[in-house]
Design brief:
11 helices
């Protein structure tokens, strides 16, 4: 495993101060003034900078940015009526370490990612391993838009309309064997297209995993679009998963391979810092990160002052219907 070297006094690459966006960026001494402005866009609503970042991220080998998805159905079963995060914030304030560690890096650096053609290989303990083209995946089921809460382990959250369908629809295509207990997701492994993979930040390619019953829960989602449009590169194009009751890093982006396995797979952040990032990583206000509280969060709304306000964090991010998955488990031990 490759781990970037750092002095004992240095923070982990994933660390971001939880007090406010200003303190968050002020402590990053290598960030330029322009990056500071871009990084606080999601909090201050600086539309001009946001438009420029979106222009820079327009893909040259993908569906054109802003292209509407056809025939998207509105979902009432899995959606919230909470105020949505503005599109400009959701697409320019991101964690996607394959494009860099700063919040503005994905929007700045994702334009070169080629998302057509794109295939996803599904293999492992299955009856019918397959390699599926992304456009074929988009036709597996009607696309529905779910307005979903997203909670980041760093202490901020968003509410975003995501377009896709339940992950189980995709996974059932290969008929998992009885010995399959977990599902592993692997991001594209291509340092030419993903400049962050040239660094030692993590052990690449990015890997995440779920227990099989978690992956099959109808709330777990294959995401193919955002705000009714094709998924932007910086948000995980052309295909990602979203597990809304877990912290954001559990929802792998730009997936190229899915594996069904018998044993719990290695995952990126659990490998990097197991004392801080557990395999389950359910949103839990009663289990603090070793360096900050998880009892409250900052909801990104596009208003700088509004984003400084903290709101209570809810167990499972408010998705109580998944509680039965963990019946009898000690969720402080299995964090």
């Amino acid at each position: 495993m490759l781990i970037r070297s750092r002095k004992p006094s240095d923070p982990l690459s994933s660390e971001i101060t939880s007090q406010s966006a200003y303190e968050e960026w002020r402590q990053q001494k290598t960030v330029s003034r322009r990056a500071f402005l871009g990084g606080t866009l999601a909090l201050a609503g600086t539309a001009l900078v946001g438009e420029r970042l979106l222009e820079m991220s327009s893909p040259s080998h993908a569906v054109s940015a802003g292209t509407k998805l056809p025939n998207v159905q509105k979902s009432s079963k899995y959606t919230t009526d909470e105020k949505q995060t503005p599109y400009s914030a959701a697409t320019t304030y991101n964690n996607f370490y394959e494009f860099g560690t700063d919040k503005v890096d994905p929007a700045k650096n994702a334009g070169a990612l080629k998302t057509r053609p794109w295939t996803v290989t599904i293999e492992g303990d299955v009856q019918k391993p397959k390699t599926l083209d992304i456009d074929a995946i988009m036709k597996l089921a009607p696309l529905e838009e779910r307005i979903i809460r997203h909670r980041c382990v760093e202490g901020w959250s968003m509410v975003k309309p995501m377009d896709g369908f339940s992950l189980s629809t995709l996974l059932k295509q290969v008929e998992p064997l009885g010995k399959a207990k977990y599902v592993q997701f692997l991001t594209l492994d291509d340092p030419k297209l993903l400049p962050g993979e040239r660094s030692r930040t993590l052990d690449w390619p990015y890997s995440e995993g779920l227990r099989l019953d978690e992956a099959m829960h109808p709330l777990a989602m294959v995401v193919l679009g955002l705000y009714g449009e094709y998924l932007p590169n910086q948000n995980g194009a052309p295909i990602r998963v979203h597990v809304p009751w877990k912290y954001g890093f559990k929802s792998a982006k730009s997936i190229s391979k899915i594996r069904f396995v018998e044993k719990q797979p290695k995952t990126a952040w659990n490998t990097e810092a197991p004392q801080e990032y557990g395999f389950y990583s359910n949103v839990n206000p009663d289990v603090d990160h070793p360096r900050w509280s998880q009892k409250t969060e900052r909801r990104i709304t596009g208003s700088f002052l509004g984003d400084l306000k903290r709101i209570p964090t809810r167990m499972f991010n408010g998705y109580d219907e998944v509680a039965s998955l963990y019946s009898g488990m000690d969720l402080k031990k299995n964090y």
